[in-house]
């Protein structure tokens, strides 16, 4: 699997696989390969979501620290 796959690409391919399985378009010989591919795509999507969540958490922590510093500076200026 390519590392340049986007979440959207992987999700769309996964939807296509699921739709073809549900509709009965995939024969028994192809089913195992499609399920393996679906598993790879799910892992990719999960990894991308986890990485995004971690990045958002880091940004939120950074914003909270900046807000705390700003509030402390404003509080110090008012006391003078």
Automatic annotation (TrEMBL):
<dbReference type="GO" id="GO:0009318">
    <property type="term" value="C:exodeoxyribonuclease VII complex"/>
</dbReference>
<keyword id="KW-0963">Cytoplasm</keyword>
<keyword id="KW-0378">Hydrolase</keyword>
<comment type="subunit">
    <text>Heterooligomer composed of large and small subunits.</text>
</comment>
<dbReference type="GO" id="GO:0008855">
    <property type="term" value="F:exodeoxyribonuclease VII activity"/>
</dbReference>
<comment type="function">
    <text>Bidirectionally degrades single-stranded DNA into large acid-insoluble oligonucleotides, which are then degraded further into small acid-soluble oligonucleotides.</text>
</comment>
<dbReference type="GO" id="GO:0005737">
    <property type="term" value="C:cytoplasm"/>
</dbReference>
<comment type="similarity">
    <text>Belongs to the XseB family.</text>
</comment>
<protein>
    <recommendedName>
        <fullName>Exodeoxyribonuclease 7 small subunit</fullName>
        <ecNumber>3.1.11.6</ecNumber>
    </recommendedName>
</protein>
<keyword id="KW-0269">Exonuclease</keyword>
<dbReference type="Pfam" id="PF02609">
    <property type="entry name" value="Exonuc_VII_S"/>
</dbReference>
<dbReference type="InterPro" id="IPR003761">
    <property type="entry name" value="Exonuc_VII_S"/>
</dbReference>
<feature type="coiled-coil region">
    <location>
        <begin position="21"/>
        <end position="48"/>
    </location>
</feature>
<dbReference type="InterPro" id="IPR037004">
    <property type="entry name" value="Exonuc_VII_ssu_sf"/>
</dbReference>
<keyword id="KW-0175">Coiled coil</keyword>
<keyword id="KW-0540">Nuclease</keyword>
<dbReference type="GO" id="GO:0006308">
    <property type="term" value="P:DNA catabolic process"/>
</dbReference>
């Amino acid at each position: 699997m390519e590392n340049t796959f986007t979440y959207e690409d992987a999700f769309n391919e996964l939807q296509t696989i699921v739709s073809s399985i549900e509709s009965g378009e995939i024969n028994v010989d192809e089913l195992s390969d499609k399920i393996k591919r679906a598993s790879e795509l799910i892992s990719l999507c999960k990894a991308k979501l986890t990485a995004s969540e971690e990045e958002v958490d880091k940004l939120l922590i950074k914003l909270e620290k900046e807000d705390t510093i700003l509030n402390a500076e404003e509080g110090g200026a008012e006391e003078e």
